[in-house]
Predict the structure of Dihydrolipoyl dehydrogenase.
Amino acid sequence: MEDNRVKEEFDLIVVGGGPGGYSAAITAAKKGLSVVLFEGGHIGGTCLNVGCIPTKYLLDKAAAMEKVRALTKQNIFKECGLFSFRKIQKGRKEVVDKLVAGVDHLLKVNNVKVVRGFASVSAPGEAECGGQVYKGRDLIIATGSVSASIPIQGAEYTITSTEALELEKVPARLVVIGGGVIGMELASAYSSLGSEVTVIEVLPELFPAEDRQAVAYMTRSLKKRGIHILCGTKVQKVEKTKDRFRVIYEGEENGQADADVVLMATGRKPNLNGIDTGAAGIALTAKGEIQVDEYMETSVPHIYAIGDAAGGYQLAHAAYAEGEAAVRNITSRREPADLRVMPRCIYTMPAFAAVGMSAAKAEEEGIAAVTGEFAYSANGMALAEGADGLVRVVMDRERKTTLGVHITGENAPEMIAFASEAVRNKTTLDEWERMIVAHPSLSEMIREAALDCFGKSVHKAVK
């Protein structure tokens, strides 16, 4: 019997208009597929609207304040001056609106049909929205993630990262529950904008999966800037007092912290609203993420999942890569998603960026590793810019190939692209020695640190 609800048929259905979803839709359209994309919120998803981009806008303005303060201490500027947080927030919105409009335009000129509504999926090859059924040969689930919370008394008094980005004024005191990427970036921004910030993290140290020396450098720098970081500490409850909040905690230190705002930044979880995985036969992992194979295909043929909905790296650029891989396989180019070399960035002040493995991870895998370091304090461009930091490179002692790069300092996320290619190509010591890097530049430090692995750094005094 014909279903009168069927509206249109397409080659590909994409559910979710975040980075993974919209990029997959555009990539597929450029390959000649007819594509429909569903988004019930804002095109661009969390990243463009309430995540990566607006956070970086705040951090950029906060970094400018730090620069002015440093110059004031050197008597180059006479005073630090005042700033308008209202204008900062206005600028943040303008940047977001411009980027979202840009993605809208790209979808339009590539003939992707955009349906403004939340779609539901309960069977292969179709999605329902507004009482209408849209059919497609293939389907990509790119529904992203939502903020996760921990079950503590008084959790209702906390705000999410979305609300933290929309505050009308800088809080005098900010307590951040969770020392992950989101928590530390917002802690760093608001600290520079004038908040007294306390971060409470249940793990014994920040970012335990990353290079310990690089993270330790970052942690010391953040504490030096005045951020109170309490690791190995668990929040017991949040109380509302007459005119503020009080966060009670216990751990290596027991105590309480008063706050005007309490931010809950305890990670994110897959957003599978509208995705009836049981009815569709889609298998989930133990964490509740959609299970996919190396081709980003779920347990159901022709249904793919990418980005945060599929777990793995909760990174926009990972979602881009996964979406493009899914489209390649949909268009009969059977090729696994290559996520082995994934740059990881934390936009604190100082920033952190890494790619590849740490020395500890290499040792776990039975690789004899050697490390090299180079400090910002020995680099001409860093000195000219007043930047501080540390670059660490990990190499295979026997093969003399590059395994990982870890950077703490200004412009670390920009330099990591250069480092990613070195890790991907397994750049050898001989190739590092022959490489020519522009001078003066911060990128010179990566080559110097690589050479230092074998005592060959020219501008490092003694190893």
Notes: The mean pLDDT is 96. The CA atoms of residues 297 and 304 lie 4 Å apart. The chain is about 35% helix and 25% strand.
